[in-house]
Amino acid sequence: MKTAQAARYAREEGYRAQFGFPMRQLEKASGPALTYVLAVRFEERFEDFVVLPRVAVVGWWNGANRFGTENPASGDLAVTVQFRPDSVVCGEVDLTPYRNAWHLLGLGEASDQG
Predict the structure, then answer these.
(1) C-alpha–C-alpha distance, residues 8 and 101, integer Å
(2) 110 pLDDT band (50/70/90 cuts)?
(3) Helix runs in 1-114, H state only
(4) Cβ(25)–Cβ(53) under 8 Å?
């Protein structure tokens, strides 16, 4: 799980958060299946979760659409994820289907009802 504090947009609805994926994990084509859960803190609570399989992150990073920037100082793929009421986007990649996609972890739907 990776967490980040979100920053609200000043002139429009929504917020953004920055995350880093270790490049050494993304460069491993083999190995155990790995799924990243991006947890976004916004106004004193965890507001959104984005569930991303490593294979998808690697595909986006190596794909034609803009997705993050390699940070040579940290060795991470740095991404800024933009959250709007009806969408989640990173660069030119639509992450909306991965918002609160707990089924990708085999957990079903998350609920506040305990």
Answers:
(1) 23
(2) low
(3) 23-26, 54-62
(4) no
Per-residue pLDDT reduced to its tens digit, 47-103: 999 999 999 999 999 999 999 999 989 889 999 999 999 999 999 999 999 999 999
Report domain extents, the chain: 2-105
Q: What is the Cα–Cα distance from 3 to 46, expressed in whole angstroms?
A: 9
State which amino acid sits at residue 34: L
- pTM for this predicted structure: 0.86
- C-alpha to C-alpha distance for 52 and 49, rounded to whole angstroms: 10
Given a contact cutoff of 8 angstroms between Cβ atoms, the answer to whether 88 and 96 are in contact is yes
DSSP conformational letter for 28? -
Per the CB < 8 A criterion, the answer to whether 52 and 95 are in contact is yes
Strand ranges (E), the chain: 2-5, 7-8, 15-22, 35-42, 45-53, 69-71, 76-84, 87-90, 93-94
